[in-house]
C-alpha cells in the first residue's frame, strides 16, 4: 500500500458518521426513552443509553423516519403530552403514543451532542405541513407556528439545518408511494416553500430505495430533472445480509456499494450537464447497515402493539467487519458523500441494544462505527492498494484487503482503517508512508474473533470487543503490520 499526504480525496464532512432514530419498534420507546427506567432523567430519557450515544460522537441523527414519516402528523407530537393522540401507525403496524415528538427529540439530540436531520412527510401530506413544520422549528417568533413552539416551552428555535423531503417515495411499501414525476414535482414545491420559510436550510431529495429497484437510475434522473434547483443532496439507501451463509460473497458487497455511489453520482452529473448548472448535487447515504437476522422473526409479531421488538438484529463479528468495510467505502467517497446515516442507533438495526428495565450494551457493529467516528475526521487520502483478490458468487476480483486513510492535519495524526476479508490466513501489510516523515505508531486496534458468528448479548456483552495488541510499526518510512485473518484494524500514527 502507498499513502501520501498529497493524494487527497476530500475533507471529510463529519456528517458521514451520522445515524438514524425512527419511531419504530423499541428505538424510541423502550430505547432512548423509558420513563420508568431507574436511569431515566426527568424527561424520561435513559441516561445510560445517552452515554453510549455520546461515546459514539454521533454528529447528526435523522428523525423521525424512515417509513414512519410517510404517515406522520407532526402536530400530534407537540404540545401537552396528555392531549396527544394515540394513533395506528401503518408503516410498522404499531400503536404510536406520541409521547416523544419534535421538541423532546430536539432536546435529547442536544444532550447527545448531535444535530437533527429532520424529515417531512411527503407520503400522506404535502407542501403545507412541511412549511409549517419548518416555521415551527426554525422561525424565531412572532408567527402562529413559532409562537406555538414557545407556548409549548421552547422559546428558542431549534434551527434544524438539513431536511429530508420524504422517505423512499418509490417503494410500494411506502404510505403514499409516488411515481418519479409525482414525487419530483412535490419535492420541488415543498422544497420551495420550506426554503421560503428558512432560506438557510439544505434539502435532501429521495433517490431510489435501493439499487435493485426496477425504476433505479430513471427515478434519480426524473426527480432531479424536476427538482434540481431546490435540492442539495440525493439520498441512497442500502442494507446487506448473509442469509445464504456465504461469507466471502457477503463481505464482497462493498463493491456493490461503491458501484451504487458512482452510478448515482453519474446520474446527478448527467442532469447537471443537461441543465448547464453550476451546482453539484451531493450524496446523502442516509440509510446503510446490515439487516437480515430479524426479517423472518418479525413476520411473527402481532400487529398494533406499542413499541414491539422489531428489527432487533443480534449482530455478529462478520457483520461488524462488513460495517467496517462500508465505512471505508464512505470515507473513500468523501468527495461526493457528504452525509451518511448508520441505520439505526438504538435497538432497531442498531449498534446499541437495551433491555426494558435492564441494561444497555454495545453490539459488534458499535466498534467500527466508533473508530470511524472518533478517528475518521480530517482529510480522506487515497490509498494505493495492491492486494490479492478472490472471486465470489456475485463478484469478481474482490480485493482481500480494503483500506481508507484519514489525515488530521491539525492534530497531526494519520489513521488507517484496514480490513482483511480472508478467512483462511493473515496478511502482511507493507505500506509506504514516507510522506509522513517520522510519524510513529501510537496504537493498532484490532477487532477479530475465532467465531465469525459470535455476537454480544445482555449476558455476554464483551464477547466481541477490540484489543490494542496489533503489531504495526513504522520501519523507516515503511509501515509494517500483520492483518489477522478476518480482521478490522485501526492503525493510528502521530
Ligand atoms: O431503517 C428501516 C427502514 O428501512 C426505514 O424505515 C425505511 O426507510 C427503510 O426501508
UniProtKB/TrEMBL annotation:
<dbReference type="GO" id="GO:0046556">
    <property type="term" value="F:alpha-L-arabinofuranosidase activity"/>
</dbReference>
<keyword id="KW-0378">Hydrolase</keyword>
<feature type="region of interest" description="Disordered">
    <location>
        <begin position="454"/>
        <end position="476"/>
    </location>
</feature>
<comment type="subunit">
    <text>Homohexamer; trimer of dimers.</text>
</comment>
<dbReference type="Pfam" id="PF22848">
    <property type="entry name" value="ASD1_dom"/>
</dbReference>
<keyword id="KW-0119">Carbohydrate metabolism</keyword>
<keyword id="KW-0326">Glycosidase</keyword>
<dbReference type="Pfam" id="PF06964">
    <property type="entry name" value="Alpha-L-AF_C"/>
</dbReference>
<dbReference type="InterPro" id="IPR010720">
    <property type="entry name" value="Alpha-L-AF_C"/>
</dbReference>
<comment type="similarity">
    <text>Belongs to the glycosyl hydrolase 51 family.</text>
</comment>
<comment type="pathway">
    <text>Glycan metabolism.</text>
</comment>
<feature type="domain" description="Alpha-L-arabinofuranosidase C-terminal">
    <location>
        <begin position="286"/>
        <end position="487"/>
    </location>
</feature>
<dbReference type="InterPro" id="IPR055235">
    <property type="entry name" value="ASD1_cat"/>
</dbReference>
<dbReference type="GO" id="GO:0000272">
    <property type="term" value="P:polysaccharide catabolic process"/>
</dbReference>
<dbReference type="GO" id="GO:0046373">
    <property type="term" value="P:L-arabinose metabolic process"/>
</dbReference>
<dbReference type="InterPro" id="IPR013780">
    <property type="entry name" value="Glyco_hydro_b"/>
</dbReference>
<dbReference type="InterPro" id="IPR017853">
    <property type="entry name" value="GH"/>
</dbReference>
<protein>
    <recommendedName>
        <fullName>non-reducing end alpha-L-arabinofuranosidase</fullName>
        <ecNumber>3.2.1.55</ecNumber>
    </recommendedName>
</protein>
Amino acid at each position: 500500500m502507498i499513502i501520501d499526504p498529497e493524494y487527497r480525496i476530500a475533507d471529510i464532512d463529519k456528517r458521514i458518521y451520522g445515524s438514524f432514530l425512527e419511531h419504530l419498534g423499541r428505538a424510541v420507546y423502550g430505547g432512548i426513552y423509558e420513563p420508568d427506567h431507574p436511569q431515566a432523567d426527568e424527561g424520561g430519557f435513559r441516561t445510560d443509553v445517552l452515554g453510549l450515544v455520546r461515546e459514539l460522537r454521533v454528529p447528526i441523527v435523522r428523525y423521525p423516519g424512515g417509513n414512519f414519516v410517510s404517515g406522520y402528523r407532526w402536530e400530534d407530537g407537540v404540545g401537552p403530552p396528555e392531549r396527544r393522540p394515540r394513533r395506528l401507525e401503518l408503516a410498522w403496524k404499531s400503536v404510536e403514543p406520541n409521547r416523544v415528538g419534535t421538541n423532546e427529540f430536539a432536546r435529547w439530540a442536544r444532550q447527545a451532542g448531535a444535530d437533527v436531520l429532520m424529515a417531512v412527510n411527503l407520503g400522506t401530506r404535502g407542501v403545507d405541513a412541511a412549511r409549517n413544520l419548518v416555521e415551527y422549528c426554525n422561525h424565531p417568533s412572532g408567527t402562529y407556528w413559532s409562537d406555538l413552539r414557545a407556548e409549548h416551552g421552547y422559546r428558542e428555535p431549534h434551527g434544524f439545518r438539513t431536511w429530508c423531503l420524504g422517505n423512499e417515495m418509490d417503494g410500494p411499501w411506502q404510505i403514499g408511494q409516488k411515481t418519479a414525476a409525482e414525487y419530483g414535482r412535490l419535492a420541488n414545491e415543498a422544497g420551495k416553500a420550506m426554503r421560503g420559510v428558512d432560506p438557510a436550510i439544505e434539502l435532501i431529495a429521495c433517490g431510489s430505495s435501493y439499487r435493485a429497484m426496477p425504476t433505479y437510475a430513471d427515478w434519480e434522473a426524473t426527480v432531479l430533472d424536476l427538482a434540481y434547483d431546490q435540492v442539495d443532496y440525493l439520498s441512497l439507501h442500502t442494507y446487506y445480509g448473509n442469509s445464504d451463509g456465504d461469507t466471502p460473497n457477503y463481505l464482497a458487497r462493498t463493491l456493490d456499494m461503491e458501484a451504487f455511489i458512482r452510478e448515482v453520482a453519474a446520474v446527478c452529473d448527467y442532469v447537471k450537464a443537461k441543465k448547464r448548472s453550476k451546482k453539484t448535487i451531493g450524496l446523502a447515504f442516509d440509510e446503510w447497515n446490515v439487516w437480515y437476522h430479524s426479517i423472518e422473526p418479525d413476520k411473527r409479531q402481532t400487529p398494533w402493539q406499542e413499541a414491539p421488538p422489531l428489527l432487533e438484529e443480534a449482530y455478529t463479528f462478520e457483520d461488524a467487519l462488513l460495517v467496517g468495510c462500508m465505512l471505508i467505502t464512505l470515507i473513500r467517497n468523501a468527495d461526493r458523500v457528504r452525509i451518511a446515516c448508520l441505520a439505526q442507533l438504538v435497538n432497531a438495526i442498531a449498534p446499541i441494544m437495551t433491555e426494558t428495565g435492564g441494561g444497555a450494551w454495545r453490539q459488534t457493529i458499535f466498534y467500527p462505527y466508533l473508530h470511524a467516528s472518533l478517528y475518521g475526521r480530517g482529510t480522506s487520502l487515497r490509498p494505493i492498494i495492491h492486494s490479492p483478490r478472490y472471486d465470489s458468487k456475485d463478484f469478481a476480483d474482490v480485493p482481500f484487503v480494503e483500506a481508507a486513510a484519514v489525515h488530521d492535519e491539525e492534530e497531526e495524526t494519520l489513521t488507517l482503517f484496514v480490513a482483511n476479508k480472508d478467512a483462511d490466513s493473515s496478511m502482511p501489510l507493507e505500506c509506504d508512508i514516507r510522506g509522513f516523515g517520522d510519524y510513529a505508531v501510537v496504537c493498532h486496534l484490532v477487532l477479530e474473533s475465532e467465531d465469525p458468528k459470535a455476537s454480544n448479548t445482555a449476558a455476554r456483552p464483551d464477547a466481541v470487543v477490540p484489543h490494542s495488541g496489533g503489531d504495526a510499526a513504522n520501519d523507516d518510512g515503511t509501515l509494517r503490520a500483520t492483518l489477522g485473518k478476518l480482521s478490522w484494524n485501526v492503525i493510528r500514527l502521530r
